[in-house]
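Lab manual, section 2.4: Encoding a predicted structure.

Procedure: take the sequence of the chain (332 residues), apply the prediction step described in section 2.3, and record the output as structure tokens. A sample record is shown.
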Amino acid sequence: MAIEITTIHDTEEWNELVEQSTQTTPFHRAEALETITAHTNGELYPFAGHKGQEPVGVFPMFELSKGPVSTAFSPPPDLKISYLGPALLNHTKQKQRRRQKTNTRFVRGCLDEIDARIDPKYTHFRTSILYSDTRPLIWSGFEPTTRYTYVVDLSASTDDLLAAFSSDARSNITNTDPTRYSITEGGEAELITTINRLQDRHAEQGVSFKITPDFVVDLWRQLPDGMCRIYTCRVDGKLVGGHITLEAGETIYGWQSWGDRNAEVPVNDLLDWEIVTTARDRGHRQYDLVGANNERISKYKAKFAPELQTYQTLETGTPVMNMVSELYKRIR
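Recorded output:
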């Protein structure tokens, strides 16, 4: 039976599909997609595949245009969106042959719709670690690049989790006087401060950082309660750090964070430990530290005894647009 590809713009209907999949992320939700659309001036194509009455996958796509040139992204660039791309439904009990066949037909059906509706000169996808079989995209001519992230297994007891951390992380967590600091969840003001601090820090390093406080606040407002959180650390009432997380299913994602380097306490270690323990208590089974590609940052993240996992970026386009894309990546 053929797989029918349609677009679903009804929020409730789309989210029902997203919640059925074990491969979707918070960014796949309709509220997140609508927020992204509003902040990119792009056009959203929320593709869904059905085989008869059975849903088989979702694949949100964004068309971004510059003059007569159209491009297709999932996710769009410059918003620090960790993952997007395709996600399968009703596949976990299938044998490999059928799962591969369904995945291939679904992805190729979506690509046919992209060609028909957008006719992009350049297409770029970034998958999540939960969607592991990107071969249908590679077989369709996409050039893959392997990327890396760290994931902490939260299924162990808190004592065992702490014991696995590096000695300096354990010391920072256990030997810091808890009366010297407070960690709580914040709101809009703390979100805005966190993004402003990150903008300043990236500017000091000459690195592009284009997400805005407005985008992050809108995302926090639109997603269901508790799906986007801001953990804050204060010393003597002064905000010295913030860590924005996203969560869905078994996974919590460490999205954006900053810590005052001059603070009297180890801000980042304390925030990460709070995230680990509270996420574990809420039933999450893994903490995706979101990115292990930067050598300096990955050294810090490795302190928490994570497992190295991979995801992929995949792109294809005309020779001229590929050259422009390569230049853009070098400038960034």
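Check your result against the sample. Residues 96-117 form the longest helix (22 residues).
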